[in-house]
Amino acid sequence: QVQLVESGGGSVQSGGSLRLSCAASGDTASTHYMGWFRQAPGNKREGVASITGDGREIYADSVKGRFAISQDNAKNTLYLQMNSLKPEDTAMYYCAAGPPGLRLETLLPEWYKYWGQGTQVTVSS
């Protein structure tokens, strides 16, 4: 089992920045990829960014050039640096980890097994 706890959300004006953190605990060595997802009211959960254990990254087109995913393996922490935020970035943001043993580069939520409780990001115009 892997437990994930997000932090760092908040309210910011358009053009501002936030950094989200996701602290992982439990059997973290068994998972080989992690990602950030977001869900706005009435919308489906969508993948934002993903990173593999060896550092390969993928991003949704809507955030390329503005968001950056990173990980600190020594601290078992995943980050999402969000710059040039827009009102359409407003959503609940979730951290997720893949199932034990599987290696993938994907933004599809169905390929993730462990999920945090989420942290709210609100961007005002």
Write the layout of secondary structure elements.
Blueprint: E1 2-7, E2 10-13, E3 18-26, E4 33-39, E5 46-52, E6 57-59, E7 67-72, E8 77-82, E9 91-97, E10 114-115, E11 119-124
Parallel strand pairs: 2-11
Antiparallel strand pairs: 1-3, 3-8, 4-5, 4-9, 5-6, 7-8, 9-10, 9-11
Tell me what you see in this structure.
- With 125 residues, this protein is an all-beta fold.
- It has strands at 2-7, 10-13, 18-26, 33-39, 46-52, 57-59, 67-72, 77-82, 91-97, 114-115, 119-124.
- The strands form two sheets. Strands 2, 4, 5, 6, 9, 10 and 11 form a seven-stranded mixed sheet that branches. A four-stranded antiparallel sheet has the order 1-3-8-7, with no helix packed on it.
- The model has no long low-confidence stretch (mean pLDDT 97).
Overall number of strands: 11
Strand content: over 45%
- Structural class comes to mainly beta
Describe the largest sheet.
7 strands, mixed
Along the chain, the helix and strand elements come as: EEEEEEEEEEE
What form results from the Cα inertia axes?
A: globular
Amino- and carboxy-terminal Cα gap: 40 Å
Q: What is the assembly state of the chains in this entry?
A: single chain
Overview features:
125 residues, mainly beta, seven-stranded mixed beta sheet, four-stranded antiparallel beta sheet, 0% helix, 50% strand, globular
Give a summary of the structure in a few sentences:
The chain is mainly β. The protein contains no helices and eleven strands.
